[in-house]
């Protein structure tokens, strides 16, 4: 968006001060994540700033003179300065866009799309045709009319990032470094460790996702279970943060809020059983992350429905022991 700045058109002399005297709002409040130098102090004059207040009011004019001076000066209007938007990142002579500025994650347009306004937003559905190959040309993945939710970790991180820069109808080549792909482990049996990934992607469509409660029962169950499986994938790789994200998203779809009573008892039981699996898996993930309070809430949900669930009882004991509640864990 354009940046709109108000500039006062007043002939007021600038107060001398050290460079950087104007701080942004966060800096002035002492906020921000980056540790910087000590706060800038105003210049001292004639030894001002000592512990004792040596100020004198003897030479100050009466208050009325300030009012007279203020009234005698015409009020100046403010000008509105509209700065241009930050320009799009430039492509190199071969047409490659350096997505992150590190030279690793790159994108090249083969066929332009329908303009920037057609780009997908986070949490939108995107529909893709894609083919993934290794450096030697070996195909390790191919999808047709593949539908995923952007930002839900349903594909590798590098592709998730770059899809947000594609336009509807666009065809592009994307090169993804190992650290944003399948990492040092690879993906057995088709992606070796530390492999660079090459994707040929066509963005067929993108549209906002409906509220989970508005979806038909079977669709909610199918999407929720798919996200559970994706969480298991990340858990198996030791990526517990992504696993927890997928499990939480699975629970969004597997919640029974908004369901009507027309579903069969068997279907409702299947939904509940799948949800309990997700909570059990989320508990294990939170334990790996040492988020014991969150893990305790997750496991208690399972035990509220299934008091004799062996996995849940075992995990609750370990959680309580990790929190120092040994006697409660034993009981």
Describe the structure.
- There is one protein chain.
- Strand 5 and strand 6 form a beta hairpin.
- The longest helix is centred in the C-terminal third of the chain and has 24 residues.
- The chain is of the alpha+beta class.
- The protein folds into two domains: 113 residues, Chitinase A, domain 3; 119 residues, Alpha Horseshoe (Serine Threonine Protein Phosphatase 5, Tetratricopeptide repeat), CATH 1.25.40.
- It has a six-stranded antiparallel beta sheet, with helices on one face. The protein has a two-stranded antiparallel sheet with strand order 1-2.
- The N terminus is likely disordered.
- The protein is built from nine helices and eight strands.
- This is peptidylprolyl isomerase.
- InterPro entries: FKBP4/5/8-like (IPR050754), PPIase_dom_sf (IPR046357), PPIase_FKBP_dom (IPR001179), TPR-like_helical_dom_sf (IPR011990), TPR_rpt (IPR019734).
- Keywords: Isomerase, Repeat, Rotamase, TPR repeat.
- GO terms for molecular function: peptidyl-prolyl cis-trans isomerase activity; protein folding chaperone.
- It is an enzyme of class 5 (isomerase).
**Count of extended strands:** 8
Find the CATH topology of the largest domain.
Serine Threonine Protein Phosphatase 5, Tetratricopeptide repeat
Helical element count? Answer: 9
Silhouette? globular
**Which percent band covers the strand fraction?**
15-25%
The percent range for helix content is: 25-40%
Radius of gyration: 30 Å
Low-pLDDT sequence parts: 1-70, 77-85
Give the neighbour order of strands across the main sheet: 3-4-7-8-5-6
Number of domains: 2
């Amino acid at each position: 968006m354009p940046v709109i700045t108000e500039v006062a058109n007043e002939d007021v002399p600038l107060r001398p001060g050290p460079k950087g005297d104007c701080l942004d709002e966060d800096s002035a409040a002492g906020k921000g994540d980056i540790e910087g130098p000590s706060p800038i102090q105003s210049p001292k004059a004639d030894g001002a700033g000592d512990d004792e207040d040596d100020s004198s009011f003897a030479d100050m004019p009466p208050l009325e003179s300030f009012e007279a001076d203020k009234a005698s000066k015409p009020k100046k209007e403010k000008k509105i300065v509209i700065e241009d938007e930050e320009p799009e990142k430039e492509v190199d002579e071969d047409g490659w866009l350096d997505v992150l500025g590190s030279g690793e994650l790159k994108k090249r347009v083969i066929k332009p799309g329908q303009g920037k306004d057609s780009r997908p937003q986070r949490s939108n559905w995107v529909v893709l045709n894609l083919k993934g190959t290794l450096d030697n040309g070996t195909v390790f993945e191919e999808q047709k009319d593949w539908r995923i939710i952007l930002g839900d970790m349903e594909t590798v991180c590098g592709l998730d990032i770059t899809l947000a820069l594609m336009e509807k109808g666009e065809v592009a080549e994307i090169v993804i470094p190992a650290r944003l792909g399948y990492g040092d482990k690879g993906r057995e049996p088709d992606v070796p460790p530390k492999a660079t990934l090459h994707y040929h992607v066509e963005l067929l469509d993108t549209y906002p996702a409906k509220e989970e409660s508005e979806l038909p029962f079977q669709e909610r169950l199918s999407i929720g279970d798919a996200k559970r499986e994706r969480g298991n994938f990340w858990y198996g790789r030791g990526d517990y943060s992504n696993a927890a994200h997928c499990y939480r998203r699975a629970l969004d779809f597997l919640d029974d809020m908004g369901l009507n009573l027309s579903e069969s008892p068997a279907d409702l039981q299947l939904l509940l059983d799948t949800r309990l699996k997700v909570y059990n898996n989320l508990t294990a993930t939170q334990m790996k992350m040492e988020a014991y309070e969150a893990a305790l809430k997750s496991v208690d949900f399972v035990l509220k429905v299934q008091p004799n669930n062996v996995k849940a009882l075992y995990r609750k004991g370990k959680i309580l022991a990790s929190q120092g509640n040994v006697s409660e864990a034993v009981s």
